[in-house]
């Protein structure tokens, strides 16, 4: 009788215990930095070649990322009979094939042959090691009382609502296990459609969430899944395309922009739908200060500031990336915001929309010297009804211009405002049921005769009108110095509380830089998502390097950069930077005034994590924080001198003796100074202020806004 353990049957799957730290340990051994011991050598030889090479690193990285589901030439676990495992670790060379050939067959798998067995046989013991788990972090059924909920998510090709051998695996589906008390644990499927969730014993509801709303899941919610201690409960999901339709996606981002230097934009693209995307192409519209110098793939043609890349047809789930290299003009004003628009086409809406009239409005903004001109073009069918628009100067304190219009197919209208250096923004409502979103618009900055009085840093405080998956606009100020390990959430929001509109998705960007003294072989970024955000809407975006991600535990997103080989800043400063970008929507039930905070931890190899700053956003109805109109009967206000230096005088006409208050804000909406007044005049000190533009709000004794004005300080 032969006793043989099940080398692939331990709960947790092949990825149990495998992460970037194991890849690093294997790299350090091969580089001679930190040699492995006897047992570590044994479990690191993943291709059974009796040697450790970069092939083993490649295999381990692919399993960690989910690119492959198992080690092709090895098992998930190694079980050795105890008598072999406890011998002197250095008594023989584990990489000597002759040594292994003298041992019993299948020694690495491990087995014990017994004679006649009558009753209970004692002394049949094994030692187990997880292949590739060099840091010994795998969870075993003997070490904890947890159980596992595991399974697969597949494209049900034969429509039998079962997970069959011939069904295609589905990657990046979120699976959530939830107790009756609301405690949740999550996981994402890998490239083989597999997931595994470690849970405490109990009763669970298991739900699968597709990355796009184009799937019909046979049983999307499985009730009463009993997870026992030291056991695995299998829950599989079979999905059928509800609508065969391509869903093009694109994301563009850069870590920073530096004048007079070469910069890089990273563009990730893919088809997240259920049908083929034929003859796909990417169009990039560059900022006027960008001069392209090359790209990771040749562009098909260019026209002025527009580059077009033909990338061929994209099958469902297929993705790719390209990099654009360019220089940023030295003559760009410091702090100016530069934008890049990225489109992937074709991008027709999926399904039919009977309530939609077929119209589609597009807004463009141009600086003509003495005017800012907004042009609204109807690129679709005739509009069935008029729509409204609003034009906002700078941020929340300036008077808004509003109106309505109705355009036939191909028609356009223009609206002009003064070119005074302000940041102007036009928002236009689409007609009802437009599948591309309810609002569109455009923003323009730094249009005016005097470059010293531009309003800067405002564009990213609001939405960039790019919430369609096939469109991404990335805007960023050119910079001098900055914190190399930080986090930003776009839109940035208005005022110190960072107000954004209800329902507004947040696009986060995490930047990191290796400022150490040696190469970072691996980088891992961990981010715990706020409970106010809908984790099922998570979408991974562009990055400076190849990465894989997974959602684990309770709302933890982990971005893994295996083998990134990030040089330290002293050796190669430009190459020492990296970033990752992702977006997520708020919960539909989020209440007015809800606050979303977020920070991330960045792990460089085995070093202590670097914590980013904490981002803050407050969801508030737009009318309570955006453009405030001066009400009818408001005050007439004179402000001088303009520009101001040491002080500014404010003369208020029509105010009663009760007085009121003056509040001075910078262009980020922060309250810089407040002064109470009791007559018709008041003076504010400005000598300590930095040069720039400020906004003055005037309220009466009851707190009602009576007027607002712009102040320039030189």
Structure overview:
Helix 1 (20-30) packs antiparallel against helix 3 (54-65). This protein starts with a strand and ends with a strand. It is mainly beta and 714 residues long. Among the domains are: 2-130, Dockerin domain (Type 1 dockerin domain), CATH 1.10.1330; 147-241, Immunoglobulins (Immunoglobulin-like, Sandwich), CATH 2.60.40.10; 246-351 and 450-481, Immunoglobulin-like (Sandwich); 636-713, Immunoglobulin-like. It is built from five helices and 49 strands. A hairpin with a 2-residue loop joins strand 19 and strand 20.
Give me a quick take on this structure.
This protein is mainly β. Among the domains are: 2-130, Dockerin domain (Type 1 dockerin domain); 147-241, Immunoglobulins (Immunoglobulin-like, Sandwich), CATH 2.60.40.10; 246-351 and 450-481, ntegrin, alpha v. Chain A, domain 3 (Immunoglobulin-like); 636-713, Sandwich (Immunoglobulin-like), CATH 2.60.40.10. It has 5 helices and 49 strands.
Give a quick set of tags describing it:
6-stranded mixed beta sheet; Immunoglobulin-like; 714 residues; 5-stranded antiparallel beta sheet; 49 strands; 5% helix; globular; mainly beta
Question: How is the topology of this model organized?
Answer:
Blueprint: E1 2-3, H1 20-30, H2 38-44, H3 54-65, E2 77-81, H4 82-85, H5 97-101, E3 112-113, E4 126-130, E5 147-155, E6 168-169, E7 174-178, E8 184-188, E9 194-199, E10 202-209, E11 215-217, E12 221-227, E13 232-234, E14 237-241, E15 248-253, E16 262-271, E17 277-285, E18 290-295, E19 301-303, E20 306-314, E21 319-328, E22 337-345, E23 361-367, E24 371-378, E25 387-393, E26 401-405, E27 412-418, E28 424-429, E29 439-444, E30 471-477, E31 486-490, E32 499-500, E33 506-513, E34 523-528, E35 533-543, E36 548-552, E37 556-561, E38 577-586, E39 595-598, E40 600-604, E41 610-611, E42 615-619, E43 636-640, E44 647-653, E45 660-665, E46 671-677, E47 681-685, E48 692-700, E49 705-713
Parallel strand pairs: 5-13, 5-14, 32-42
Antiparallel strand pairs: 1-3, 2-4, 5-6, 5-9, 7-8, 7-10, 10-12, 11-14, 15-16, 16-21, 17-20, 17-22, 18-21, 19-20, 22-30, 23-24, 24-27, 25-26, 25-28, 28-29, 31-33, 33-38, 34-37, 34-40, 35-38, 36-37, 39-42, 40-41, 43-44, 44-47, 45-46, 45-48, 48-49
């Amino acid at each position: 009788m032969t006793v043989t353990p099940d080398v692939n049957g331990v709960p947790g799957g092949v990825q149990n215990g495998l992460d970037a730290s194991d890849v690093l340990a294997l790299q350090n051994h091969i580089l001679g930095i930190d040699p492995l011991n006897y047992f570590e050598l044994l479990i690191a030889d993943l291709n059974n070649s009796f040697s450790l090479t970069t092939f083993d690193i490649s295999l381990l990285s692919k399993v960690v990322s989910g690119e492959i589901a198992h080690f092709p030439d090895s098992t998930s676990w190694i079980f050795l009979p105890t008598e072999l495992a406890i011998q002197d670790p250095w008594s023989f060379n584990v990489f000597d094939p002759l040594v292994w050939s003298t041992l019993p067959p299948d020694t690495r798998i491990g087995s014990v042959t017994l004679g006649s067995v009558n009753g209970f046989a004692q002394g049949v013991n094994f030692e187990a090691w997880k292949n590739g788990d060099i840091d010994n972090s795998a969870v075993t059924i003997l070490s904890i009382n947890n159980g596992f909920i595991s399974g697969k998510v597949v494209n049900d090709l034969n429509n039998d609502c079962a997970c069959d051998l011939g069904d295609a695996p589905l990657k990046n589906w979120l699976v959530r296990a939830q107790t009756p008390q609301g405690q949740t644990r999550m996981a994402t499927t890998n490239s083989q459609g597999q997931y595994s969730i470690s849970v405490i014993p109990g009763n669970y509801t298991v739900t699968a969430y597709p990355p796009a709303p184009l799937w019909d899941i046979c049983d999307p919610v499985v009730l009463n899944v009993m997870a026992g201690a030291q056991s695995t409960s299998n829950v599989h999901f079979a999905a059928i395309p509800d609508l065969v339709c391509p869903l093009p996606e694109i994301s563009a981002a850069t870590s920073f922009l530096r004048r007079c230097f070469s910069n890089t934009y990273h563009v990730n693209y893919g088809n997240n739908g259920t049908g083929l995307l034929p003859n796909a192409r990417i169009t990039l519209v560059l900022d006027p200060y960008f001069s392209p110098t090359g790209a990771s793939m040749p562009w098909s043609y260019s026209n002025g500031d527009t580059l077009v890349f033909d990338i061929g047809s994209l099958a469902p789930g297929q993705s790719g990336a390209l990099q654009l290299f360019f220089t940023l003009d030295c003559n760009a004003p410091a702090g100016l915001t530069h934008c890049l628009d990225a489109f992937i086409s074709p991008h027709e809406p999926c399904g039919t929309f009977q309530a939609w009239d077929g119209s589609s409005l597009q807004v463009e903004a141009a600086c003509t010297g003495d005017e800012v001109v907004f042009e609204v073009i109807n690129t679709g069918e005739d509009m069935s009804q008029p729509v409204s628009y609003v034009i906002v100067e700078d941020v929340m304190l300036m008077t808004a211009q509003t109106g309505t219009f109705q355009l036939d197919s191909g028609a356009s209208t223009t609206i002009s405002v003064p070119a005074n250096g302000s940041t102007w923004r036009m928002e236009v409502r689409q007609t009802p049921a437009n599948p591309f979103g309810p609002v569109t618009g455009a923003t323009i900055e730094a249009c005016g005769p005097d470059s010293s009085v531009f309003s800067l840093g405002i564009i990213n405080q609001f939405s960039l009108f790019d919430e369609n998956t096939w469109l991404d606009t990335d805007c960023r100020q050119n910079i001098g110095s900055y914190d190399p390990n930080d986090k930003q959430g776009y839109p940035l929001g208005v005022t110190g509380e960072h107000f954004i509109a209800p329902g507004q998705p947040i696009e986060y960007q995490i930047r990191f830089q290796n400022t150490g003294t040696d190469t970072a072989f691996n980088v891992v970024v961990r981010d715990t998502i706020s409970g106010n955000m809908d984790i099922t809407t998570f979408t991974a975006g562009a990055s400076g390097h190849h990465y894989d991600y997974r959602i684990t535990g309770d709302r933890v997103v982990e971005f893994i950069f295996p083998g990134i080989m990030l040089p330290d800043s002293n050796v190669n400063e430009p190459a020492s930077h990296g970033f990752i970008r992702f977006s997520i929507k708020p919960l539909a039930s989020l209440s007015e005034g809800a606050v979303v905070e977020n920070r991330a931890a960045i792990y460089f190899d085995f070093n202590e994590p670097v914590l980013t700053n904490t981002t803050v956003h407050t969801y508030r109805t737009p009318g309570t924080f955006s453009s405030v109109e001066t009400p009818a009967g408001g005050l007439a206000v004179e402000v001088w001198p303009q520009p101001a230096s040491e002080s500014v005088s404010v003369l208020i006409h029509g105010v009663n003796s009760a007085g009121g208050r003056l509040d001075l804000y910078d262009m980020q909406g922060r309250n810089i100074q407040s002064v109470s007044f009791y007559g018709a005049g008041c003076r504010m000190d400005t000598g300590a202020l930095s040069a720039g533009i400020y906004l003055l709000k005037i309220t009466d004794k009851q707190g009602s806004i009576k007027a607002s004005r712009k102040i320039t300080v030189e």
